[in-house]
């Protein structure tokens, strides 16, 4: 009898709370009306699941530590009731490791930021649909970068379908370029799944403000959304704060005993040897040498003309005297 009462109470709790469907799987991508992820469908990540359904609840596993890392790149903090990775708070990981009550607390405190994150400029990703979009809408390549191959195939099917349901309670019509939820056409959802221009057109039709890259309907909080990178900064600050608050008793240091330092005996002073200074006599400057100025060049004298040749006349014949003369 007690077992039936407990089961009936669990059904009442599940029926009175809204559902947030968990991450999509590879079997999704059906048109509206045929998707197993329609709003209110049964899901292991249902928003109204009992808080004791998680095997990682409070004071169970990991030695009951307030902060632990169940997976690489994921940190869970029991005192803050959240699990987060490098991109921010993750609703589904919080539900998995800390239970549904902690997940609902994070959704109430941080709003859409537990589902949506912006890993780089101009890119928005949604943990509910496990898809990423840019200014043109859904992008399979970006989805593969931040999720998995199965998610890439599912997003590729959505981009080729006229109507698709990217998450529970949301229907998108590519022909009319409008995405709607339970409240009717939604500018932010249209921007997220069909692109910036489709969201802007819908905003103009409904006289609403221009769409935002990330829906900003999260409640104002004093604490920013934690990320794994910010915890590296928070930890030294918390240690410094605890050190400032701690009052240490006065402590006097023991005097250091004086030690006698043995110095070597001083060496006898050595008189310096002064060498006589050599006086260098100044060298007299050399007397200037008189160089006579060159005179005008003398022209050579002409050679004397040769004397005229003297013609010798023949000597006169001797006068013959005597008998032999002719």
Structure description:
The chain is of the alpha+beta class. 27% of the residues lie in helices and 13% in strands. It is built from eight helices and twelve strands. The protein has helices spanning 2-15, 91-98, 100-110, 140-146, 149-160, 187-194, 196-205, 228-245; strands at 67-71, 74-77, 82-85, 88-89, 116-120, 123-126, 131-134, 137-138, 163-164, 171-173, 178-181, 184-185. It has a four-stranded antiparallel beta sheet with strand order 1-2-3-4. Strands 5-6-7-8 form a four-stranded antiparallel beta sheet. Residues 11-19, 25-60, 214-222 and 232-257 have low confidence and may be disordered.
* Helix-residue proportion: 25-40%
What string gives the helices and strands in order?
Answer: HEEEEHHEEEEHHEEEEHHH
Number of helices: 8
Low-confidence stretches: 11-19, 25-60, 214-222, 232-257
| Number of extended strands | 12
What's the story with the biggest beta sheet? Answer: 4 strands, antiparallel
Structural class: alpha+beta
Distance between the termini: 216 Å
Globally, the shape reads: elongated
Strand content: 5-15%
Q: Mean pLDDT, rounded to whole units?
A: 69
Biggest sheet: strand arrangement: 1-2-3-4
Radius of gyration: 56 Å
Ordered list of secondary-structure elements with their pairings:
Elements (H helix, E strand, L loop, with lengths): L1 H14 L51 E5 L2 E4 L4 E4 L2 E2 L1 H8 L1 H11 L5 E5 L2 E4 L4 E4 L2 E2 L1 H7 L2 H12 L2 E2 L6 E3 L4 E4 L2 E2 L1 H8 L1 H10 L22 H18 L81
Antiparallel strand pairs: 1-2, 2-3, 3-4, 5-6, 6-7, 7-8, 9-10, 10-11, 11-12
């Amino acid at each position: 009898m007690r077992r039936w009462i407990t089961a009936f109470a669990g059904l009442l709790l599940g029926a009175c709370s809204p559902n947030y469907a968990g991450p999509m799987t590879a079997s999704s991508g059906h048109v509206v009306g045929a998707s197993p992820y329609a709003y209110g469908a049964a899901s292991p990540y249902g928003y109204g699941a009992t808080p004791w359904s998680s095997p990682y609840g409070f004071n169970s596993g990991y030695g009951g530590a307030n902060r632990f890392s169940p997976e690489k790149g994921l940190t869970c903090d029991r005192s803050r009731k959240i699990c987060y990775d490098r991109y921010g708070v993750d609703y589904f990981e919080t539900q998995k490791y800390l239970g549904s009550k902690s997940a609902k607390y994070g959704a109430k405190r941080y709003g859409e930021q537990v589902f949506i994150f912006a890993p780089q400029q101009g890119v928005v990703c949604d943990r509910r649909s496990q898809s990423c979009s840019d200014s043109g809408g859904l992008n399979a390549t970006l989805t593969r970068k931040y999720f998995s191959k199965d998610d890439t195939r599912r997003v590729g099917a959505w981009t080729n379908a006229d109507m698709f349901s990217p998450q529970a309670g949301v229907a998108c019509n590519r022909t009319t370029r409008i995405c709607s939820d339970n409240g009717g056409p939604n500018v932010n959802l249209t921007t997220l799944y069909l692109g910036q221009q489709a969201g802007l057109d819908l905003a103009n039709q409904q006289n609403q403000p221009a769409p935002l890259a990330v829906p900003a309907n999260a409640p104002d909080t004093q604490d920013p959304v934690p990320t794994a990178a910010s915890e590296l900064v928070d930890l030294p600050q918390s240690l410094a704060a605890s050190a400032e608050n701690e009052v240490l008793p006065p402590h006097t240091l023991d005097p250091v005993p004086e030690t006698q330092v043995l110095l070597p005996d001083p060496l006898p002073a050595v008189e310096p040897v002064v060498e006589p200074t050599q006086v260098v006599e100044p060298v007299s400057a050399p007397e200037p040498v008189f160089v006579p100025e060159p005179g005008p060049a003398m022209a050579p004298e002409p050679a004397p003309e040769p004397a005229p040749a003297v013609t010798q006349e023949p000597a006169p014949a001797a006068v013959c005297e005597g008998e032999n003369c002719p």
